[in-house]
Write the structure tokens for this entry.
Amino acid sequence: MKSAEDKDSFLSGPKYRRVADHLRAEIARGVWGAGTQLPVERDLADSLAVSINTLRRAVSELVADGTVQRRQGAGTFVRPRPGPGAGPRRLVGVLVPSTTYYYPRVVEGIRQVLRDSGVAVLLASSKYDLAVERDELRALRETGVDGLLLAPNLHLMPDAQEYVDCLRDLPVPYVLLERRPPQPAPDDPTPYVRTDHGGGVCLALRHLHSLGHRRVGHLGRLHTGSADLVARGFDAGSELLGIEVPEGASVRRAVWTPEETADYVRHCAASGVTAVFCLGDRDAAALVVEARRQGLRVPGDLAVVAYDDEVADVGDLPLTAVSPPKTEVGVLAARMLLARMDTGAAAPAERVDLLPRLVVRASCGGTPPPAPAAPPPAAPRPAAAPV
């Protein structure tokens, strides 16, 4: 409940300025912290019992005095401000494809390091859209960030290497997250921290091989940031370990429909495939459901390993999964960026690949699969007829 003093302040002066003063006070109290997005206009106007036009005039006041910043297509965000008696506080912009899947733990690692160093974070999401990515990167630069942590959508770009090369023209230090130059020159100076996806796939295949699986399938994806790396890792790991991949057992789709998953399970059963590696926990879970529907035992008849480990442990059959070191990627990238911000051009160009870990659960079992049934003995040949 507002105090009488709050109420008197809120009721004095032109309405839009009263609203602006009220919002400033709420921001000062920490209701919305630095880098936080304000509620959408309609919700905020309703909560203050004012019209949309009044709210917009009030927010324009806050934009003019630097309290908040409008970002095209994203909303209105509180700008970081230095504390009393403190020098200017440094600010790092973080641009990731998603704030709901995979990247929240990366961002958590970033925040841990930067918070401890007194550096504010301004988070933006490209939503896997190149136009949004361009606008968000421009907005972060215009905000006056001191450094950038970037996970660009290289897999959607016609010339990803050219884009990476152009990042060198940025006026502030930067580090790539979960990305690396796709076709770098030997002296490419781009700093990055990323997961070694191919190495993670090989970990999974080595585990399946140790359990006796020799015919393995790959249910993969197209058009994601890691899809091609995972596919190449599957091919390389299969060749290294002598694993047979029957024709039609390695399939990639932009989206797997229930009908396609059902066809894939039937094909694996007919081809003698005893294990499947899946890119994505949800596709792996759908595969398990369909395999059981078709009468296959998981893992008895078909072992399943997922890649991502976002929700692999929540189903009735917990999934064995390759778990990328997401928090560690954020921690190392933030430390790398701070060093570059402190040292400047003299900072070495670090390139870090982190190997995921394999979390073994129920979906692949812990014992070798049953050996194929031996063929029945041949019937005795009849004696030769007398001449």
Remarks:
- The chain has twelve helices and 14 strands.
